[in-house]
Specification:
mainly alpha; 3 strands; single chain; Phosphatidylinositol 3-kinase, Chain A; 2 domains
C-alpha cells in the first residue's frame, strides 16, 4: 500500500496508463475521487486497479493518510513484548534497572566501535543495525523516555539564562523522572560520552549525538503533536532545537550517578 496525494486528472491519466500497460486487458476498477472528512485536502483520490498480463495479476492501490496518523505511536498490544511497551513494564518483568535490549545494544556498539567510523552515520551494516535498533527502541516507546508530563518543563528549563537556576531546574527535572527512565537515561548518557571521546575517529561530537538522539528522547505527546501540525514550521524547528539542547546540556555536564541524584533531591526541590 502506497500513500499519496493525487488529483482527479492524475487519476484519469493513471487509469489510461494502466489500461495501456495491461496489453488491452481492462482495468477492473477505477473508483471515483473522494475527499475524506476533516482532512482539509483539496486534492485527494483513491484508485484500485487490477492488471492481467501474461497470466500475472497485479493489484495497485493508493490512498490518502493524514499527517496526524503518521505521527501516532501505537503501543504494543502484547505487554510481554519489548518494543512499544512502557519501559517500567519491561524493567519490572526483567527484574532489571535498564531494559536488556538497551544494555545489549550499547555493549555491542562499543565492542565494534574501537576503530571504525560511528555506525549511526556511516556504512558498516552490522553495527548500523545494532545502533538503529537502539534508536528504534526509544522511538517506539509509548511515551518519550523523558516523559510527556515533563516535556514543556525541560524546554523551559534549558532556556533559562541564569546558570545556577538552570542547573537547579534541570537536575530537579531528572529527579522527577520515574526510576526506570532515570536509570536508562543515565546509562545512555555514559554511552554517548564514551562515543564522543573517540570523536577524532568516529566524527561524532557531543552536538552530533545530541542532534541524533535529542528529538527521540524528548518529544511532545500525541495530543501536542496533533496541535502542532497546524503551526508554522519555524515553531516546529524551534522545538527540535530545544530538544537537542536539553540532551546536549546533560552530555556536557560532569557525570552524575543515580544515588547522587536521589541524595540531592531535597536540595534541588527546595531551590526550584
Amino acid at each position: 500500500m502506497t500513500d499519496t496525494l493525487v488529483s482527479e486528472r492524475d487519476l484519469n491519466s493513471m487509469c489510461e496508463h494502466l489500461e495501456h500497460c495491461s496489453m488491452g486487458s481492462p482495468v477492473d476498477e477505477c473508483a471515483p475521487v473522494k475527499r475524506p472528512p476533516n482532512t482539509g485536502a483539496k486534492l485527494w483520490g483513491r484508485v484500485r486497479s487490477k492488471i492481467l498480463r501474461q497470466k500475472i495479476k497485479v493489484e495497485f492501490s493508493m490512498k490518502f493518510t493524514g499527517r496526524d496518523l503518521t505521527l501516532k505511536r501505537t503501543p504494543s498490544k502484547k505487554q510481554s513484548g519489548v518494543f512499544g511497551v512502557k519501559i517500567g513494564v519491561v524493567t519490572k518483568r526483567e527484574c532489571s534497572r535498564v531494559p536488556f535490549v538497551i544494555r545489549q545494544c550499547i555493549e555491542e556498539v562499543e565492542k565494534r566501535d574501537s576503530t571504525k567510523d560511528f555506525p549511526l552515520m556511516l556504512s558498516d551494516m552490522d553495527i548500523n543495525a545494532i545502533a538503529g535498533t537502539l534508536k528504534l527502541y526509544f522511538r517506539e516507546l509509548p511515551e518519550a523516555l523523558l516523559t510527556d508530563r515533563l516535556y514543556l518543563a525541560f524546554l523551559e528549563g534549558v532556556a533559562l539564562s541564569d546558570p545556577v537556576a538552570k542547573e537547579t531546574c534541570m537536575m530537579q527535572l531528572l529527579c522527577s523522572l520515574p526510576d526506570p527512565n532515570l536509570f536508562t537515561f543515565l546509562t545512555l548518557l555514559e554511552h554517548l560520552r564514551r562515543v564522543a571521546e573517540k570523536e577524532t575517529v568516529n566524527k561524532m561530537s557531543l552536538l552530533n549525538l545530541a542532534t541524533i538522539f535529542g528529538p527521540t528522547l524528548l518529544r511532545p505527546s500525541e495530543e501536542n503533536s496533533k496541535g502542532q501540525i497546524t503551526l508554522l514550521s519555524d515553531i516546529w524547528s524551534h522545538d527540535v532545537m530545544a530538544q537537542v539542547q536539553v540532551l546536549l546540556y546533560y552530555l556536557q555536564r560532569p557525570p552524575v550517578s543515580f544515588s547522587e541524584l536521589k541524595r540531592n533531591t531535597i536540595y534541588f526541590s527546595a531551590d526550584v
